[in-house]
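> example.struct
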């Protein structure tokens, strides 16, 4: 019976200090599952240690000291840097080992690093003699199989979780019974900018998506912004307190997942008693080994997989990094790159890298011409970048040139740094030397983005961006010669950069355009564009000029009428009293749009062109 084996393995820490011999390699279970009592007794207060290497994944509790000068007692080697260990790494008193979670499995399972002693924490055994790793499965199950000696702290406060975390008494060499509160890691209050980043991330997540979230403020903000979503699934290395509310309000149901339907899949829980209680004996949550959660096959088995991870900086070519000296908070690769790269290639999937546009004190831009510190760790390379999100919006960089990326990133940088970034991009020859930007105070109106069905297709309507230049050119070249003439009132065979750039350079106050795209949330082909700009004629300070063009294949299904109505509303809200349009006399399609409108209008014909003056403060009649 396992009971006898259990009793025979019960010891006090003092009696097994000799297990850690000089030069040993010791693994300590980390995160909220760290066996604090064992660490204190066998590491921190053990003065007999000599040249010990300590391996850990995500150390949250920290250490009383960092092992003596030059690691004479012990040297910490961590695969991830969290705030509690920041000073140790900055001062050179600990080592960071950059590696992915799949690489970590190979490193330990294939003997690249031989672990002599493993310190872990488990629940008391059940009636079959199985104990649970509880909150931290990650790589620990592999460690148990590979280590020479496994020492377990049995803590009744550890929750019992389902998945890969069950460990039989037979797998443990020594047992130390000690009850104590678990390591808790409450997330700090989020500033308004970080909250806005989270809201912008949420705009990219569709109902029924499966999400992976990294560790830190930005991913946490994304979770907090998901409250109005439906049937979200979770397949992630780490889950936090924010998961609990989302499950309780039925945002997270996991019912639309392609595999592990109905299950939250993760490897670690990091948070407070809130999530500890939530996962305890909860069959909805399964904690799996890193090898499963971060495995390409597991990730790619999902459709609509969304990876959400943070970064410290991103350069104008699309590379993102983590871990910059005084700005370092959370630093490490783990599954960041694997999830980002894999998610973007699942059907309807996205890889999202998110960051504040500035440092928290506002002094430094986080979108940069080149990285500001040589010690950064580049996590996402140019070829693996997909979406980048700040509090000022999002940019889809996948399949874009360096010129297109640089311009897109500048548009979501903080307005006070955009002019600088524009000049740096020109200096580096990333963009056209005559490239312009909207004014510094031009803030992209995210609130105008929405979806609507036309002819059975769900289309995205959004404000135009400076990055839409090529798409506007493409729309122009789909038009017949007649349509081109109707739009510009002159014969045009080409729309070069010099002509196209002003059409996309909106300040969202004196000029704006709404464009229609077929691909939801993706900056694909433009199917239609309706715009207005303030008249520059004397006496018409409160008047604007309207123009519209619709792709030939998308005409006669109501797009033009709808855009006209929306543009009238926007112009009215911005304080315009009058909207003017100039229409060739036989442009019957456009004239029908105006005739169907309830806006009061006056028409006059001269030189084959109707001048239509619309009073957008009065919608009572038309003539």
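> example.seq
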């Amino acid at each position: 019976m396992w009971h006898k084996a259990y009793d025979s393995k019960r010891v006090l820490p003092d009696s097994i200090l000799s297990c850690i011999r000089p030069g040993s390699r010791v693994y300590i279970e980390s995160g909220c599952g760290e066996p604090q009592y064992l660490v204190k007794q066998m590491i921190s207060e053990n003065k007999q240690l000599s040249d010990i290497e300590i391996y850990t994944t995500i150390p949250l509790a920290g250490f009383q000291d960092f092992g003596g000068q030059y690691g004479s007692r012990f040297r910490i080697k961590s695969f991830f840097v969290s705030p509690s260990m920041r000073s140790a790494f900055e001062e050179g008193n600990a080592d960071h080992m950059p590696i992915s979670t799949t690489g970590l499995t190979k490193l330990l399972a294939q003997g690249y690093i031989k672990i002599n002693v493993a310190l872990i924490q488990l629940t008391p055994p059940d009636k079959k003699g199985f104990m649970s790793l509880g909150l931290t499965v990650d790589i620990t199950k592999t460690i148990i199989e590979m280590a020479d000696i496994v020492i377990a702290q049995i803590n009744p406060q550890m929750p019992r979780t389902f998945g890969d975390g069950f460990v039989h008494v037979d797998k443990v060499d020594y047992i130390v019974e000690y009850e104590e509160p678990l390591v808790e890691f409450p997330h700090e209050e989020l500033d308004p900018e970080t909250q806005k980043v989270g809201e912008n991330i949420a705009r990219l997540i569709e109902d029924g998506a499966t999400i992976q979230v990294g560790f830190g403020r930005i991913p946490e903000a994304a979770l907090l912004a998901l409250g109005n979503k439906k049937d979200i699934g979770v397949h992630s290395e780490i889950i936090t307190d924010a998961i609990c509310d989302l499950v309780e309000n039925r945002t997270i149901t996991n019912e639309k997942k392609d595999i592990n339907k109905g299950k939250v899949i993760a490897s670690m829980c990091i948070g407070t008693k809130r999530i500890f209680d939530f996962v305890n004996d909860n069959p909805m949550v399964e904690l799996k080994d890193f090898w499963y959660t971060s495995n390409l096959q597991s990730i790619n088995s999902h459709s609509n997989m969304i990876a959400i991870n943070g970064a410290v900086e991103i350069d104008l070519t699309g590379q993102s990094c983590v871990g910059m000296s005084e700005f370092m908070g959370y630093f490490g690769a783990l599954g960041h790159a694997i999830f980002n790269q894999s998610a973007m290639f699942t059907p309807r999937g996205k890889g999202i890298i998110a960051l504040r546009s500035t440092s928290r004190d506002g002094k430094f831009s986080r979108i940069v011409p080149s990285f500001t510190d040589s010690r950064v760790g580049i996590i996402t390379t140019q070829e693996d970048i997909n979406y980048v999100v700040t509090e000022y919006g999002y940019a889809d960089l996948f399949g874009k040139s360096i010129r297109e990326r640089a311009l897109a990133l500048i548009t979501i940088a903080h307005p006070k740094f955009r002019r600088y970034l524009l000049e740096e991009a020109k200096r580096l020859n990333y963009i056209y030397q005559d490239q312009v930007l909207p004014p510094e105070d031009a803030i992209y109106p995210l609130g105008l983005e929405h979806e609507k069905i036309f002819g059975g297709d769900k289309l995205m309507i959004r404000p135009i961006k400076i990055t839409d230049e090529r798409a506007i050119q493409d729309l122009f070249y789909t038009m017949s010669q007649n349509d081109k003439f109707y739009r510009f009132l002159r014969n045009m065979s080409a729309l070069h950069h010099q002509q196209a750039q002003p059409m996309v350079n909106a300040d969202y106050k004196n000029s704006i355009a709404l464009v229609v795209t077929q691909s939801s949330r993706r900056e694909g082909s433009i199917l239609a564009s309706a715009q207005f700009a303030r008249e520059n004629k004397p006496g018409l300070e409160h008047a604007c000029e309207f123009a519209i063009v619709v792709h030939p294949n998308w005409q006669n299904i109501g797009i033009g009428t709808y855009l006209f109505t929306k543009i009238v509303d926007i112009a009215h809200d911005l304080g315009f009293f009058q909207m003017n349009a100039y229409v060739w006399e036989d442009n019957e399609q456009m004239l029908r749009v105006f005739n169907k409108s309830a806006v009061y209008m006056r028409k006059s014909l001269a030189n084959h062109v109707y001048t239509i003056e619309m009073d957008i403060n009065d919608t009572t009649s038309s003539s």
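> remarks
DSSP finds 19 helices and 32 strands in the chain.
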